[in-house]
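TA notes, week 10

Several of you asked for a full example with nothing omitted. So below is the full record: structure tokens for the whole chain, then the designed sequence directly under it. When grading your own attempts, check the secondary structure regions first.
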């Protein structure tokens, strides 16, 4: 039987697991002083079924909230890039949307077709693919993603949520079955919630990046605009605070984004960002879910989003949120104003 590349790097699960507990600490920040000729840089796709932990992993790797996380499946609708410069390497992560296997919500089929197209388009130009699964689990939804993975570039099997596995020996038969499914280049069991594990993942991915000059500055985290981050932040709070009640077809649109410069003559002034956002829901009843009793939920969405945006942007934020029903832009649309600190 021909030797698979996985034989060289996966001598045994035991060895992999022992390496995991001896995780090495790399230096935290990228070294912009590395001469361009010695730099590595490349695209890395994080793929996997909904809810497997892609956004959690990306955020842990990039060290900041770039993608959004929620218990609700399908919160990652956009292709999001997170950038991490570490040692001589610049990792440019592409977080692909999850797969939607059920088509129960009216009107979502087109959206899902789009998601699948995005997955394939994303994979066509990456240096390495991280295929995320939950350790010990492989269902039809995972199989659907696996079927789309390229065979002409390295695919690492990343078994996430290792912290939920009580007996690691139980993973042996599962791993054997996984290796028969695809010629994975490497097997990485980890927990996206453990910093040591995610740092170690960077060390593992590094050699797969081509030797080439960095594309972004050493301190860049994302090529997404602050405006985009603002819509993602409102969306995250929306889904977090509505739980499973709200269909994922709800979207957030940023209607206005104004950067106000610091006040002249006031050294302490950081300036302010004024944001007007609209949460668009499918039905009138969904609007009630978002607004909540006496507007409490909407107020919380606004306060939490504003607080986190202020932390991320390092400036004051004035956030105004509206809720609208897609079918009719009714006059009585609810409005929330979250005042900044004047
Ligand atoms: N116990 C445990 N939970 C995890 C781990 N990683 C992620 N989670 C949880 O899994 C859930 C889903 O995580 P996400 O990062 O939003 O998943 P996703 O794959 O980006 O989901 P979609 O946006 O739907 O594609 C969240 O509740 C996370 O807190 C882990 O290592 N251990």
């Amino acid at each position: 039987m021909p030797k698979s590349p996985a034989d060289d790097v996966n001598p045994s699960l035991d060895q992999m697991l022992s390496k995991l507990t001896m995780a090495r600490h790399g230096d935290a920040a990228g070294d912009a002083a590395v001469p361009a000729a010695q730099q590595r840089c490349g695209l890395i796709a994080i793929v996997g079924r909904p809810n497997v932990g892609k956004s959690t992993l990306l955020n842990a790797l990039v060290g900041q909230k770039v993608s959004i996380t929620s218990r609700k499946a399908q919160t990652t609708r956009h292709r999001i890039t997170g950038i991490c410069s570490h040692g001589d390497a610049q990792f440019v992560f592409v977080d692909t949307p999850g797969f939607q296997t059920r088509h129960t919500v009216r009107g979502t089929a087109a959206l899902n077709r789009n998601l699948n197209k995005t997955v394939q388009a994303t994979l066509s130009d990456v240096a390495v693919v991280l295929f995320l699964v939950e350790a010990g689990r492989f269902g039809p939804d995972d199989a659907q993603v696996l079927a789309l993975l390229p065979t002409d570039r390295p695919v690492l099997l990343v078994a996430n949520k290792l912290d939920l596995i009580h007996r690691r020996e139980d993973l042996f038969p599962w791993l054997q079955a996984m290796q028969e499914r695809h010629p994975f280049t490497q097997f990485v069991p980890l927990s996206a919630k453990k910093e040591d594990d995610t740092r170690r993942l960077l060390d593992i991915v590094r050699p797969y990046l081509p030797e080439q000059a960095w594309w972004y500055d050493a301190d860049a985290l994302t090529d997404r605009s602050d405006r985009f981050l603002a819509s993602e932040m409102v969306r995250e709070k929306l889904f977090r605070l509505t739980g499973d009640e709200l269909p994922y077809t709800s979207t957030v649109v940023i209607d206005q984004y104004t950067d106000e410069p610091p006040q002249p003559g006031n050294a302490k002034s950081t300036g302010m960002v004024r944001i007007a956002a609209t949460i668009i829901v499918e039905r009138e009843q969904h609007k009630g879910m978002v607004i909540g009793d006496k507007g409490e939920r909407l107020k919380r969405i606004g306060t939490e989003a504003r607080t986190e945006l202020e932390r991320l942007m390092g400036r004051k934020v004035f956030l105004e949120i509206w809720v609208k029903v897609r079918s009719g832009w009714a006059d009585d649309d609810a409005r929330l104003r979250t005042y900044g600190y004047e």
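The chain is about 30% helix and 20% strand. Use that as a sanity check on your answer.
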